[in-house]
Amino acid sequence: MSATTSETRPLVTLSGVRFAYPGRGNAPVLDDLSLSVGEGEFLAVLGPSGGGKSTLLKLLAGLAKAQSGRVAVGDVEIKQPHRDVGMVFQRPTLLPWRSVRDNILLPAGFAGGASESDRARADRLLEMTGLQDSAALYPDQLSGGMAQRVGLARMLLHDPRLLLLDEPFSALDAMTRERLSLELQRIWMAERRTAIFVTHSIPEALFLADRVVVLAGRPARILADITVDLPRPRTLETMGTETFNGLALELRRLFNTVAGDSGAQQ
Amino acid sequence: MRWIARLAPPLVTLVIVLAAWHYATGPGGLPSYLLPTPLSVGQALWSGFASGEFWPHVLFTLCSTLIGYAIGSVLAIIAGVLVAESELFERFIFPYIVAIQATPKVALAPLILVWFGFGLASKVVLVALICFFPLLVNTIGGIRRTDPELIAMARSFSRPGWWIFLHIKLPAAASAIFAGLEIGVVLALIGAVVGEFVAAERGVGYLIGAATVNMNVAAMFAGVIILALFGVFSSFAVRAVQKRIVFWERAPSDLPTGERP
Does a structural domain hold residue B169? Predict the structure, then answer.
């Protein structure tokens, strides 16, 4: 890849992707799904539980392999975990036997051999995520919000071109969620990496994303692809604007019809 | 000062039990050939150690227990890792491991004595065998119960299999392994004593056996007390090591300890 990649050139391309979990009959979670995400874009994937959102991230992280179709990041077809892709999980997934700093350093060097530059970068990330005073703490001493920040910092240390976030705030209380959304925006604006953020919260999706894709049904289909044209940095006041509320209402209506359909099926 | 407060209640219990024992063996109480007085047991312990008579026996039991425990534990952890990590090994070997685990190892004692002689070797083999299985099962269980999301996380960062084993599965299994080590150390002592009961010229088990023949009940009690102390100290030592190594689990006793034998 050249350094002069234009903003419009997609970093992520999925074309005709089909995926079914083994041993669950033949019903595929994704079938003939195509989606592309531009370089530097923040995409939110919105949808009900079991709508294939997490599966989509697993495919991009290389933790699952599509049965047909193509999943690519940049010029690389993803068949196994790739160093250009980093992920934050729904649960913090920190190692309880490592301090906050050592958890963040997990993606660096094998056998604990983190280089000087890794350590310096870990220090910067600790500061960026407001964890500088917690570097020596162990995960059982952290609140849920702090633990997810460690997960975020760990992913950023990996220095990926594509950030995958799988409902990272869903286990947190509403206040912490809002604060972390603001922080995530700040971090994302500083780093400007392509991000795919999976959530089932409409306000969270609209607050963070440049573009919201609604995924629902089985196999999952893209029901809506909405551009969120709100200036950045977005603030808590943004959530009170007409544009924001209009988009939220539109998505809510869409969700309601989908929930009615899939509810009848299940 | 805190430890005094912690130690005082059990000490009070000890004093009450000793007093009751003393009273039960007093005039009109149980005859001394059934229950010796606490004083005579104390005398038997004292004279046994002071005369040097007990030392080789204690040393012998200590040696066979510790050597057998070390060998059995190392083999159990290695075998546990192989079974947990290799499907091939599991399919070929695991059913037999389960079958041998169901067999009371004590029943093998006479056979082992025939094969390995009446000295230290047979006791070491018996001890190793008896503490092998609980630790094996705990090691397998501990590794298998590793949070799959932690493994997925490490894989997403392209960590290779050996790294995931060393840095995620092994630490995740550590508390289950220690639970197996704790069960094992007590079983090891049982193995050593059983071996000495069956055939030996030395050891605390032999001492108890010899005292039985002479109807020296006080010496029998002395032997049991030595073994009890050894059992308590060794499981305490294992727990102390566990607290240092598995430091991230603040309340080890509250954790699932895996399968007990």
Answer: yes
* Angle CA A248–A45–B156, to nearest 5: 150
- CB interface of A with B, residues 157-186, below 8 Å: 158
In chain A, where the domains are located: 10-84+162-265, 92-159
Confidence of residue A25 (pLDDT cuts 50, 70, 90): confident
Residues B167-205: tens digit of each pLDDT: 999 999 999 999 999 999 999 999 999 999 988 889 999
* CATH at B97: 1.10.3720.10
Full domain range(s) for residue B201: 53-254
Of B149, B150, B158, the CB nearest to A81: B158
Among left, alpha and beta (phi > 0; psi -120 to 50; other), residue B140 is alpha
Contacts of B158 in chain A (CB under 8 A): 80-83
Decide if B92 is inside a domain: yes
Q: Which among B153, B249, B250 has CB closest to A89?
A: B153
- Is B189 in a helix, a strand, or coil? helix
As for how many domains chain B has, the answer is 1
Complex ipTM: 0.84
What's the fold here for domain A10-84+162-265? Rossmann fold (3.40.50)
| Count of CA atoms in the C-beta half-sphere (13 A) of B74 | 5
In tens, the pLDDT along A51-66 reads 788 899 999 999 999 9
Q: What is the pTM of this model?
A: 0.83
